[in-house]
Design goal:
By secondary structure, the protein is of the alpha+beta class. Helices cover about 15% and strands about 25% of the residues. Bound molecules: FE2/S2 (inorganic) cluster. FE2/S2 (inorganic) cluster (FES) binds near residues 62 and 72.
């Protein structure tokens, strides 16, 4: 398989937008529920025009979302980055060991996609991973977790199960909660803080775009509490 050349970058500007470069594709993706209301799958939506570089709103106040329109200045946006700078594995606060799978969990990274709540939940499914169906569901659920809070690992090989992502960004919409969510950063894109720190490059992370996360630049699910809406018509149900 041809190896992708990494070129996308996100630089966080102080109290301002995410400056994206490297022609990173940007599209919309919506969390779709099953018949019981549990998050089940992703539905791809609008693709935004290709651009070499662009600025994405992180204060939540732009009138041209997902792009920045300069509103952060008048709004006096405080974008102070408060997230820990340790690597994912150094932040793990819960580890489940099942018969065939292990699950690692960093709760502070939760963007509340809720794929992990379906059926028995990823934690219980991991504990029962000698059942092939339950093992499959645990892997699917953890791979659907946009923030990378949850990672399942093969117990024998110690290899992580990860979805195959190219470098790209998605703006998340949450149809069941009827809110707009974070920016989903896929494929180990480099994210650089406003003071020059390079966060661990991960296959999936979510960046706050409502402006209210207490774990900036990462999403902490506050968009649900504050009812963040980027103007997506489909959320007005
Ligand atoms: S960051 Fe510029 S308008 Fe939101």
């Amino acid at each position: 398989m041809k190896k992708e050349i990494k070129k996308g970058k996100i630089v966080i500007s102080k109290n301002g937008p995410y400056i994206v470069s490297g022609k990173l594709p940007l599209e919309k993706e919506t969390i779709m529920p099953d018949e019981e209301g549990f998050s089940y799958e992703w539905k791809k939506g609008e693709k935004y025009p290709d651009q070499e570089a662009y600025a994405l709103c992180r204060c939540g106040k732009s009138k041209n979302k997902p792009y920045c329109d300069g509103s952060h200045v008048a709004d006096n946006f405080d974008g102070t980055e408060t997230a820990g700078r340790k690597k994912y594995l150094e932040q793990v606060d819960l580890k489940i060991e099942g018969p065939e799978l292990e699950l690692t969990d960093v709760q502070s990274l939760c963007s509340n996609g809720r794929f992990c709540d379906r059926k028995e939940g990823t934690w219980n499914l991991t504990e029962k991973s000698n059942d092939p169906q339950k093992k499959k569901m645990a892997i699917e659920q953890s791979c659907n977790c946009p923030s990378g809070r949850l990672v399942t690992w093969d117990k024998k090989t110690k290899k992580a199960y990860e979805p195959e992502f190219n470098e790209s960004l998605s703006v998340i919409e949450d149809s069941h909660a009827q809110v707009s969510g974070p920016i989903w950063v896929k494929g180990k894109v480099q994210v650089k803080s406003s003071d020059g720190h390079i966060y661990e490059k991960r296959n999936r992370v979510t960046l706050c775009r409502c402006g209210k996360s207490a774990n900036k630049p990462f999403c902490d699910a506050t968009h649900i509490r504050v009812g963040f809406n980027d103007g997506d018509e489909s959320l007005k149900g």
